[in-house]
Amino acid sequence: MNGRIHLKNMLFYGYHGDLAEENRLGQRFIVDLALTLDIAEVVRTDALESTVDYVRAHEVCRQLVEDEQVRMIETLAARIAERLLVEFPRLSSVDVVVKKPGVPMKGVLDYVAVETSRTR
What is the pTM for the complete model shown? Predict the structure, then answer.
């Protein structure tokens, strides 16, 4: 029995970007996750160790966004997905969206986003 755990609009402050100002000043990044796994065991046991700890998943994202630095949000999204698959062997797939609301460009928009998926 497959299920999905969603973490939506996680807000972090990081130093990612191609421009020197982005790396020096930093900015907000918003991350969404959809974590797919077999939930049959957790439904039967009702125990945290039978599922994915979403508090830990949030912490993995926070560490990658706030403590590491990359130029492209595509790279950031891929690293988040890969790390989550390593951290949580119960996951069968991970969908990651990284949103960058403070895009340094002329024009009005809510954010630029990159979405990636990884399957075990």
Answer: 0.95
Q: Known catalytic residue: 100?
A: yes
Domains of the chain plus CATH, in order, are: 2-119 (3.30.1130.10)
Cβ-count burial of 46 within 10 angstroms (0-12 exposed, 13-18 middle, 19+ buried)? exposed
Give 71's strand partners.
Answer: none
Mean pLDDT of the 67-95 span? 97
Residues 8, 99, 100, 106: which is the catalytic one? Answer: 100
Beta carbons within 8 Å of 94's beta carbon, 6+ residues apart: 33, 34, 35, 36, 80, 81, 84, 85, 117, 118
Query: Considering only CA atoms, which of 112, 28, 14, 20 is closest in space to residue 63?
Result: 14
